[in-house]
Amino acid sequence: MSSPYLHINGIRKTFGEVVATDHVELEIAEGEFMTFLGPSGSGKSTTLYILAGFQDPTAGDIRLRGRSILQTPSHKRNIGMVFQRYTLFPHLSVGENVAFPLRVRRAPQAEIAAKVRRALSLVRLDGFEDRMPAHMSGGQQQRVALARALVYDPPVLLMDEPLSALDKKLREEIQHEIRRIHQQTGVTILYVTHDQEEALRLSDRIAVFNTGKIEQVGTGPELYASPATHFVADFIGNSAFLAGDLVAIGAGRASLRFADGTVLADIPMHGTGLAGGKAELMLRPERIELTAQPGLSGASLPVTVEDVTFLGNSSTVSARTGWGEVLSVRMNFGHPMMGQVRQGDALHVRWQPQHAHVFAKA
Amino acid sequence: MLLDFDKLGAWKWILSAVCALMALFLLLPILFIVALSFGDSRWLIFPPQNWTLKWYGELFADPRWLAAAWTSARIALIVMVLSVVLGLLASLALTRGTFRGRAVLRAFFLTPMVLPVVIIAVALYAAFLRLGLNGTLAGFVIAHLIVALPFSIITISGALETFDPSIEDAAILCGASPWEARFRVTLPAISHGLFSAAIFSFLISWDEVVLAIFMASPTLQTLPVKVWTTLRQDLTPVIAAASTLLVALTILLMIVAALIRKGKSR
């Protein structure tokens, strides 16, 4: 078997007593769009900085095409990077900014001119060569930064929350640009973000980071449909969690008893747990349905409506279970019960058993 | 805005008048000296009866005045270069460093600004007596560097603080070695700060008189010292001419500094 294109091999980084990343292990294929998703302080940026060479790992190795890059200083790694903040050189024009990596590589003038034009055209900024960075919008500046990072054909492009300073509309616009550029160039991208929507929209695969570790790696649909841990289930998609006790476990299925004695059987289970232990039932809001009667098929629970929030294309109903936990149910616009549900109504929530998940609590 | 100038009513006129008086108060002595330098009266009579350039002629004919001006210029230029180089190094340490006692060090660097110049002068005079630096170019340079450095550090630190270190990181990832990144990106990006520091350092040395009087010897003196010593002997309008040229260069450099700042904010 050939070695992976990029191998992040057991990277550990500690700052004194603080563990920033702990045994991060990841293999990335050539041309893949891999996103590190996680809350701030989860170690995703630290991993990226180690790749860039701004920090040295305490342990572990990073291999590109089978060769370790840790001994190579940052400026010789040939890696491209777009930063969270605007990092265009303020005293140079757009054209000179993009030309900079080629100039320090002592490329011939004709080659520089051609490559700069091509890179600017790639980010749809043709003819902006003579503009100064201070006279450009944030979105344009980040596109120039992207052109500057791609102009020397790096084997890997690192992007550290490059859109976090932009407003929502512009962010979505540039996300499309990034996707197009990825498809057009085939460059391998490592993208850091804390925005799950951004991660889902852009990535081939997502590595979910939490407290210095990777919780799960997979495509967006994989992570959404079968989260491996409570954290992943919670971070991707707005899930409801109901606490209960495990009463029976077997063959990846479990039975759960809630505080009021209700028992739900045959739910897909993740992780290991013991009968009698604590566990949580996870439900995606769009998998649950509100009904007036308990369902004949599937699982259901009696609830009381706590609150109804209208959100345009859907409404969110907060429903309280018999033992006092609250879960939210999404109701799409046009649903027959929309507009009829009132605060205080006694209803039922219903779902297909295979759409719920049980996570054992440590 | 709480204090909108247009909504102040009668206060508007009072404030404008105060402002005009302040400007006059600051400018009159300069206008006075300039007028005297072109007047034909040997006794500095104001207002002058007739206009002449003969005091300037006398000034440029006198080798002692020219020597003093040349000394001033040499000292100011050396102070300017050293002040910018040392100021840059100190500012890098103060803004980028993470060592303990950074705030204390910054305060320490700025003490010459608040310390009475006379005290620095006396202290230096006593120290230089032992080192044999009084009356030497090096003595002048060291003395002026002490008062010029705080201004350098303030302006260069200010420029460095507005410069995001990530930009330097970006240059390094683009393939520039750390030193190349500093020279090709960081220094040009803070050049307005370096220029301001250079101009202010030059002017501080060029205009400085207290330290210079202590450092001066009969054979080595700066232009302000020459003005001062000549003034004590006789009240010739040549002093007014020398002062006018001194002020002219100062104003010229201030305008350059203002233009640099304006160019940066644009």
Automatic annotation (TrEMBL), chain A:
Transmembrane segments: none
Boundaries of every ABC transporter domain copy: 6-236
GO biological process: quaternary ammonium group transport
InterPro entries named in the record: AAA+_ATPase, ABC_SmlMolc_Importer, ABC_transporter-like_ATP-bd, ABC_transporter-like_CS, Mo/tungstate-bd_C_term_dom, NA-bd_OB-fold, P-loop_NTPase, Transp-assoc_OB_typ2
UniProt key word Transport: yes
Cellular component aspect of the GO annotation: ATP-binding cassette (ABC) transporter complex
Keyword ATP-binding: yes
GO MF assignments: ATP binding; ATP hydrolysis activity; transmembrane transporter activity
Cited Pfam families: ABC_tran, TOBE_2
Record keywords: ATP-binding, Nucleotide-binding, Transport
Protein name: ABC transporter ATP-binding protein
The species this protein was found in: Paracoccus sediminis
TrEMBL record, chain B:
Record domain ABC transmembrane type-1: where: 69-257
Membrane-spanning parts: 12-38, 75-95, 107-128, 140-160, 194-215, 235-260
UniProt-listed Pfam families: BPD_transp_1
Record membrane topology: Multi-pass membrane protein
Entry GO CC: plasma membrane
GO process terms (BP): transmembrane transport
Locations listed in the record: Cell inner membrane; Cell membrane
Alphabetized UniProt keyword annotations: Cell inner membrane, Cell membrane, Membrane, Transmembrane, Transmembrane helix, Transport
Classification via PROSITE patterns: ABC_TM1
Family indicated by similarity: Belongs to the binding-protein-dependent transport system permease family.
UniProt protein name: ABC transporter permease
Organism in which the protein naturally occurs: Paracoccus sediminis
